[in-house]
Amino acid sequence: MPRPDLAALEQDLLRFGMAARQVRRTLGELDAHFDDLVEDALTTGLDRELAEWQALERLGAMQDIATAARTRLELRDWAHRFPYVALVVYPLGCLAALPAAPVIAYAGDLARWTACILLGGFVTAAMLLLLQLTITLG
Amino acid sequence: MAQTNPPFMSGVPELLLLRLLDQNEMYGYELVRSIRAATGEAISLGEGVIYPVLHGLERGGALRSRRRSVGGRTRVYYSLTHKGRQRLTKLQNDWRRVQRGISNALENPARAPA
After folding, report:
1. How far is B98 from chain A (nearest CA, A)?
2. Of A138 and B58, which is predicted with more confidence?
3. CA of A63 vs chain B CAs: smallest distance (Å)
């Protein structure tokens, strides 16, 4: 049964840098288009196999579709459109943010420790003040 | 295989798609049939190549799409945006200018500078 080689096209589009979601959508629409072509061909009296061959021919070569996609740079995902950002700025940004990672990851524990230290300091200060007052007034 | 005319196709599918979508929202297969009908099959292209063009136009803000279930099948319908209408006007003007230039050159080749 002739069918468009969508698996090969998928690989081509992914290699070109098209976002996976966009690739899935393109393949889905091509598949539906092929089914429409087959249905139309069947209504002209062709048998199924001939109808599928004709549909395949009208859909065009997968290579041509890949070439058409390659000319549309706006279909690439951001990492392929802005490789310097993806390969330089983004990793450096992650590296710079690395020291903050434990703070973010243990934010709850840090907040509890901070509260305990502040409370301990407050109690100590209050006791020292009380001692001072006792000595002074005593 | 149907004969295509790739050297002359640059920008033409885009112009035709925008022009047809200016009238109605359509899905891919419907668009291809409309192109065939509107051009008297003078424009012949591998039908699958319209999808990268449609998706590129949508990404550029010239088209919007929505999914609609029709007869138990899900279709992606495309329609023109305001930005798309502006782009259509520009492409139409460009095309008419080129068309006039070529017509002039074909009719009066002697006027071309040596």
Report:
1. 22
2. B58
3. 10
Looking at chain A, list the stretches that DSSP marks H as alpha helix, in order from N- to C-terminal side. Answer: 6-16, 20-43, 48-59, 62-70, 78-81, 83-84, 90-97, 100-105, 107-137
| Residue from B56, B68, B62, B59 nearest B30 by CA | B68
Domain containing B15 — which CATH number? 1.10.10.10
B9 touches chain A (CB under 8 A): no
* Residue contact B52–A29, C-beta within 8 A: no
Q: pTM of the predicted model, to two decimals?
A: 0.74
Question: What are the tens digits of pLDDT across the range A43-100?
Answer: 999 999 999 999 999 999 999 999 999 988 889 888 888 888 888 888 898 888 888 8
Whether B61 contacts chain A with CB within 8 A: no
Q: Which domain holds residue B83?
A: 10-98
Q: Give the count of domains, chain B.
A: 1
Residue B4 lies in a domain: no
This complex has an ipTM of 0.80
